[in-house]
Amino acid sequence: MVSIRRYLDNHLDGNAIRQAVGLLIEKLGQYAVVQDPGECTEFRREIEGIGEALTPDLPPENVLTLAGSAGQALEAYNRRVTGRIGKQSSEFQAIVKMLRNSLATIAGENAESIQSLARIGEELERGTAFKDLQSLKLHLHTCLSGLREQIEREKAASKSTIEKLQIVIEDLRETAGASLQRKSVSIAVPRGRQECIAAMNEAVSKGTRHFALVMVVNRVQPINARFGRDAGDWMLARFKDHVETHFLASDQVFRWTGPAMVAVLERAKALDEVRSLVRRILDKPFDETYEIDGRSILIPISAAWSIFMLTAEPCAAERQIDAFIASRYSRDFA
Fold first, then answer.
1. What range defines the domain where residue 242 resides?
2. Residues 267-292: pLDDT tens digits?
3. Which of 70, 112, 217, 259 is the most buried (most CB within 10 A)?
4. How far apart are CA 178 and CA 182, in angstroms?
5. CB–CB of 317/193 below 8 Å?
6. Of 148, 146, 154, which is closest to residue 119 (Cα–Cα)?
7. Number of separate domains in the chain
8. 263 in the same domain as 243
C-alpha cells in the first residue's frame, strides 16, 4: 500500500495543499451559522487557532491532520447548534398549542368569531408539523396577526353593543314614569331621576357625609316576560319595602330607571363601614309569594348594588350611577 506521505510527495504540491486547507479553515469560521453569538465566537476562535498552526514548513500529512481537526470542531459545533434549534423549536410548538387552546375562549359566543378563529386554528395545526424554525416563526407571525385583527373586530363589536345598551337605557328612562302609573300595582316610589339629583345636590350642600346607594333588582325582565309587567312592579315594591325597614327615617329612596333605585343615605361613618352595613341588608336574598290566577308562586328577590360617597361634583355621581346600571344591563342582556 502506498503511504499518504509518498502519495502526496509524488502527486501534490505541499504549498497547494496548505493553501487549500487554509482557505477551507478560513471559510469554516467565516460562514459558521450564528445561533448563539457567544458560542459562535468561541468556535471561530477555535478555528483561528487551528489556522495559526498551519505554518509554511508543515508537512502535507500534518496539513491534512489539521483539516481533520477543523472538521471535528465543525461537527461538534453543529451538534450544539442543532440541539439549541431543536429546543427552541419545541418551545415554539408549545406556544402553538397554547394559542390553539385559547381560540375557543377568545371566540366566546360570537358565531362569526368562531368561524374566523377556526381558520386560524387550522393554520396553527399545520404549523405544529413545521421542522424549519424560520418557517415556523413566519407562520406564527401570520397567525398572531390574524388574532390581533380578530381582537380589533371584537373591540369594535363590543363598542357597538355598548352604544345599543345606552339607547335601551334611554328608552327605559322615558318609559319609567309610565310604568309607575299602572293601576293594578303601584311601586310607591313617586320620585324619579331628577328628584334624586336634586336630593343629592341638597345633601352635598349641607356639608355632612352622604352616600349614594345604587340598587338594581335582579331578574325583573324574565319575571315580566313570564308573568307580565304587574309581577315585575310587584317585585320592585316588595324590594323597596324590604330595604326601607332597615333604613333610617331620613333616608330617601328614588326610582332612577327601570329596575334601578337610588337611596341617598346620611351617615357619619366611613365608606367601608357603611358598605358593611349595606352588605348585611342586601347580600342576602329573600323570598316573597306572588298570587296570580289562583296560584301562589314563591319568587326570590335580590339586587346588585354599589355605594359611593357624594362629592361636590353632581355630574360625577350621575356618571357613577349610570355606569353601574349599564354594567348590569350589559351582563343581564348579554
1. 186-332
2. 999 999 999 999 999 998 999 989 88
3. 259
4. 7
5. no
6. 146
7. 2
8. yes
